[in-house]
C-alpha cells in the first residue's frame, strides 16, 4: 500500500498537467484485454466509469487534501479494474 501511495503523487501531477495520459492509459488497458469483440463495449463502459470515479471530486491542484483523496480513489480504482480486467496494467 505504501508504494501505491507513493506512486499516486506523481500520477496525480501527470493527470493534472497532461490529462491525455489518462485517455492513453484507457486505450492501452483495453488493448491488453483478451475478450471477445461482443464484450468490448461493456468493458469500455466499465473502464470509463472507473476512470470517471477515479477523477470525481479531484481538483486541478496539488494541495495535500486533494493528493490524499486521489490516493484513496486510486486504490479503489486499482481494485475495481483488477476485478474485471484479465490483464490490468
Largest sheet features: none
Q: What general form does the structure show?
A: elongated
Q: Helix- and strand-based class? A: mainly alpha
Separation of termini? 17 Å
- What percent of the residues sit in helical stretches (DSSP H or I)? over 70%
DSSP, total strands: 0
What share of the residues does DSSP label as strand, in percent?
under 5%
Number of helices: 4
The unreliable regions are none
Q: Element order, helices and strands?
A: HHHH
What count of domains describes the coordinates? 1
- Kindly report the average pLDDT value: 87
Radius of gyration (CA) equals 13 Å
Write up what this structure looks like.
This protein has 89 residues and is mainly α. It has one domain (2-84). It is 76% helix and 0% strand. It has four helices and no strands. It has helices at 2-17, 20-31, 37-55, 64-84. The longest helix is centred in the last third of the chain and has 21 residues, at 64-84. It is elongated and about 40 Å long.
Quick take:
With 89 residues, the protein is mainly α. It contains four helices and no strands. It is elongated, with a radius of gyration of 13 Å.
Secondary structure elements and their pairing?
Elements: H1 2-17, H2 20-31, H3 37-55, H4 64-84
Tag the structure with descriptive keywords.
single chain, 89 residues, mainly alpha, 4 helices, 0% strand, elongated
Amino acid at each position: 500500500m505504501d508504494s501505491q501511495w507513493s506512486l499516486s503523487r506523481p500520477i496525480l501531477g501527470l493527470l493534472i498537467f497532461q490529462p491525455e495520459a489518462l485517455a492513453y492509459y484507457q486505450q492501452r488497458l483495453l488493448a491488453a484485454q483478451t475478450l471477445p469483440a461482443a464484450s468490448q463495449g461493456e468493458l469500455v463502459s466499465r473502464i470509463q466509469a472507473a476512470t470517471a470515479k477515479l477523477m470525481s471530486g479531484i481538483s486541478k491542484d496539488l494541495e495535500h487534501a486533494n493528493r490524499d483523496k486521489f490516493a484513496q480513489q486510486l486504490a479503489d480504482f486499482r481494485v475495481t479494474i483488477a476485478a474485471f480486467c484479465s490483464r490490468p496494467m
